Amino acid sequence: MAIDGVKIIDSDDGYDIYNCVVENYKDGVSVDKIIADMLADEKNYCTDDFYAEIYWTSFAYSLWEIGHLPDEIKDKALEIIAKGANEFWLEIDSKALSQRQKVLDKLAAQLQSENPKPIKVPKSRVKRKPYFQKGDVLAVKFKNQYGIIFVSEVDQTPRKIEYHLACTNLLQKEKPNNILSSSDFLNSQIACSKHGIKYWIDTDRWFNHKDLGMLVDNLEKIGKVELEDCLLGVLSPAHTLDDIYDEITENIESFSNTLNDTYCIIKSINSEEY
């Protein structure tokens, strides 16, 4: 774990805990669930006294920041602080122990008072509807060719919608037909690898809602499938149609990716919509 400084969230764990608490709170997750989920991970974080100090202080600080600090968590953090900064801080820097103690003393005072300006849940925006859903198979139109991709995952919260698009290696001049009447999709190949009983999808183009909205005129839904239990092996942010084209051609030309038949990761084809 990286330690970048002596402040409460100047470590990988501290930063992760803060983000988990605050971002979930902003997304409308209940405080009770946030606390329960974090407490469930306590053993993973608290592998020794040093990491326990980081866990409880960053957890309490994060809850104080949103204005929802339960007494039991506050008391646990204050108990940790009362023991003094862990001696391991001296291993990081000769001045780190005393500097950390000052940070802990300041935090103790904060935790025993109400936050005058707690982080607030953002006002709800007009609920946006996703352009596509997980399992949608899409024909994508390029300048002189067509490809076939499918939606491997959709991440939706009150504040964002993000799409993961998996690209097959198919490129052709003719527009792909509905997957129920054509074998184009199932006969294509995709970069994926099997790990145990699961496939890892090793091709990804990750779009936010705004950027994908700029491309919808080039995308046409031609089918719906249920995927096998797969994992996303790579996460690759994308913004343009060229990003999709580059991924398809890379899958065709690259020898580093293992190409398998697309049908290997398809559990079933949904015929009810067509």
List keywords for this structure.
about 270 residues; alpha+beta; 2 domains; six-stranded antiparallel β-sheet; about 25% strand; elongated
Could you explain the architecture of this structure?
By secondary structure, the protein is α+β, with helices and mostly antiparallel strands. It folds into 2 domains: 12-111, no CATH class; 136-269, no CATH class. It has helices at residues 12-26, 31-40, 42-45, 49-65, 71-82, 89-92, 96-111, 209-213, 241-253, and strands spanning 136-141, 146-157, 160-172, 189-195, 198-201, 205-208, 219-227, 230-232, 259-261, 266-269. A 6-stranded antiparallel beta sheet has the order 6-3-2-1-7-10. A 4-stranded mixed beta sheet has the order 8-5-4-9, with no helix packed on it.
Beta-strand residue fraction: 15-25%
Mean pLDDT: 90
Helix content: 25-40%
Shape: elongated
Given helix and strand content, the structural type is alpha+beta
Oligomer: single chain
Number of helices: 9
Radius of gyration: 24 Å
Strand order of the largest sheet: 6-3-2-1-7-10
Low-confidence stretches: none
SSE string, helix = H, strand = E?
HHHHHHHEEEEEEHEEHEE
Calculate the terminal CA-CA distance, rounded to whole Å. Answer: 51 Å
Total count of domains: 2
Largest sheet: 6 strands, antiparallel
Q: What is the number of beta strands?
A: 10
